[in-house]
Structure formats: C-alpha cells, structure tokens
Amino acid sequence: MALAREAKPKGGFDFSAIEEKISVMMASVTVKDKAVFSRQLAMMFSSGIALMKAIAILGDQAENAKMKSALKKIKADIETGVTLSQAMGKFPDVFDDLYCAMVQSGEIGGVLDTVLNRLANALEKSAKMENEIKSASSYPKAVGGIAIVVFFAMTTFLLPTFAGIFKEMGATLPFITVLLLNISEFSRDWRRMLPLIVVLWLLMTAFKAYYKTPIGRVQIDRGMLYLPIIGELLKLIAVARFCNTFAMLTNAGVPMLSCFEIVGRTAGNQVICNAINNASLEVQQGGSLTEAFEKEHIFPGMAISMMRIGEETGELDKMLSKVGEFYEDEVEQAIKGLTSTLEPIMMVGIAALVGSILMSMYLPMFAVFEKLG
C-alpha cells in the first residue's frame, strides 16, 4: 500500500526534469570553465583513459549545468560513432568554432592531448585578460554608482530641507541652487520621471536593434575604435587575439583560409572582422598576408613587420605567437594605465558633484548672513 501511495500519478509533471532544463537555460559556460575542462580532458586522455570514459567522468563532475548537459549528450553521440569535434559542434554556446576546429585538427593528426593542452593555455590567457578588463572596469562602475546614489540622495532628501529654510528667510537663490532644486523636485515626482524612464528605455532598445543590423554594427564598432584610450585598447586586444588564435590554428594544421574564417568570427569587432575577411580574399587571389593587412590600416606597423618576417622565413606561426605575447603584455599595461588614469578623474568628479551640492546649500545662507549683518 505504501508503494502504491508513493507511485507517481499518471500524467503527473516531472518537476526535476523541468528544473534541470531551467538550470541549463540559465547557466552560461565561461572561458575558465572551458579551460579547466580542456586541461582535465588532456590529462585524462594522455594518461590512457578512453575518450568516452573521460567525457563521462567530466560530465558527472561538472558543476556548470550547461556543460554537464552538453557532455552527457556528447558522450551519447560518441557512442554512436560520431567524432568528438562533430559532437561538440552541436553545442555552439559551449564549444565555439575555434574550439571545434582545434579538436578536429587534433583528431586528424592523432595529437588530441597536445591540442587540448594548447587550447587550455590559450583559454587561460583569455580568461586572465577578461578578468583584468573586468577588474579595470569595476572601479569606475562602483564609483560612478556611488556618485549617482549620493547625488540623488542629497538632492532628494537633504536639499528640500534647506529649500524650506531659504524660503522662510526670503533668501535670494543663486542659479546653481535653483537648478538643483528643480532637479530635486523633478526626481521626487514619479509622474514626471516615468516618461523620462520610458524614453530612455526606448532609446536603449532602438540602439540595440540598430546594432543588430549590418550597417549599425559596422558604424558603432568603428566609432568604438576611435574612442580616446578605449579605442587603442580595443585594437591591442584584437591584435593579440588574432595573432594568438591564428598561430594556434596554423600550428595545429588547420588550412589558412579556414583560419581566416574562424578568426574573423571571433574578432569581437565587425570592422576588424571585415578587415580579416578582406585579407582572406586577398590571400585567396595570391596576395601576401602582410600586404593584405597593410591595406586595411587596422594592425600596428610593428605587427605587420613581424608578420612579414614570419612569411619570409616560413615561420609565420612562431612569429605570430611572439607578436601575440607582446601585445598581451601591451594590453596588460594599457589596462593598468587606464585604471590609474580613471582613479583621479573619478575622485575629482565626485568631489565636484558633492561640492556643487554643498555650494548650492551654503551660498544662499551666506547671502542671508550678509543681510542680517
């Protein structure tokens, strides 16, 4: 009887399956997740553990729900005779084109463990660069957020109190006080704020929609490259990513035209992607790689010169690796320089913001004291 009561009713929902699907949809596989997986799979594969068993073990141990689900399905595909790269290709949100191409080259050359170690090294470098960029951007975000909160707190709660005092004293209010009082009154009236919020939301939605169009993405990405400080940093990141990825692919035996296609899709900027595609067409027509990039005016002269030496000596992959390492260091230094530049600017900005509010409160009081005196 107890067993009968515990049995699931017919037509009942499998809540565990629904919960698993939701967790898979909500999860996202980070660069660090892929780097750890690559290192572990390479170690297990080189230790003599069968590929299918290694995938099964890593799938069971995976903490990321999306990675766990993908590895289970990849294991099932391998059991039916599908290659690892083909099985991974079914999950582009977990294993991108670059990853699948590298795995395929390792399968063809019989050096899968070596390729996986290279992938792990590259992904670890990429994760390190992402962390540096995030840490550099977290400071201005935090300080900017605090500044906005302080500004609205002072204008919404503190300034109206002084406004009542000024009115009773009959003080003549300077322009800055009138301006901030108007902002305070506006921010405290939700009927006025609501249209502004709606307009800002519509502008952001329109901007995102325009960015998704081919013309919009090119125009916005081109504008990003010409921003002061940030534009140069984006170019350095693009050069380092291109050189490292291209070197890794060519060293793994991937054909050059396939390298162009994969690297173009992972460029991160449509203008740079178009430059890589144009260079690919130039190479297909028999042109030189360095001459093709020289025409695009995207890569720095030093990178072009090093590529030319690599082509002339027949060691393009090694030269690109060195160029990639050099520009990775340049990116690291540029991020540190950006952080050190932003710190005093943000501090001065906050001081000016708070100082303007204090001036708006104390200037009318000085006027009143002069009258009384």
From TrEMBL:
**Primary location class:** membrane
- All copies of domain Type II secretion system protein GspF, residue ranges: 37-160, 242-364
Q: Does the keyword Transmembrane helix apply?
A: yes
User: In the UniProt record, does the keyword Membrane occur?
Assistant: yes
**InterPro entries assigned to the protein according to its UniProt record, in alphabetical order:** GspF/PilC, T2SS_GspF_dom, T2SS_GspF_sf
- Compartments in which it is found: Cell inner membrane
Pfam families, per database record: T2SSF (PF00482)
* Entry keyword set: Cell inner membrane, Cell membrane, Membrane, Transmembrane, Transmembrane helix
User: What transmembrane ranges does the database entry give?
Assistant: 142-163, 193-211, 223-243, 345-369
Gene3D superfamilies in the record? Type II secretion system (T2SS), domain F
Q: Which GO terms describe its cellular component?
A: plasma membrane
Please report the record's description of how this protein sits within the membrane: Multi-pass membrane protein
Task: Give the family from UniProt.
Answer: Belongs to the GSP F family.
Q: What is this protein called?
A: Type II secretion system F family protein
According to its UniProt entry, this protein's organism is: Planktothricoides sp. SpSt-374
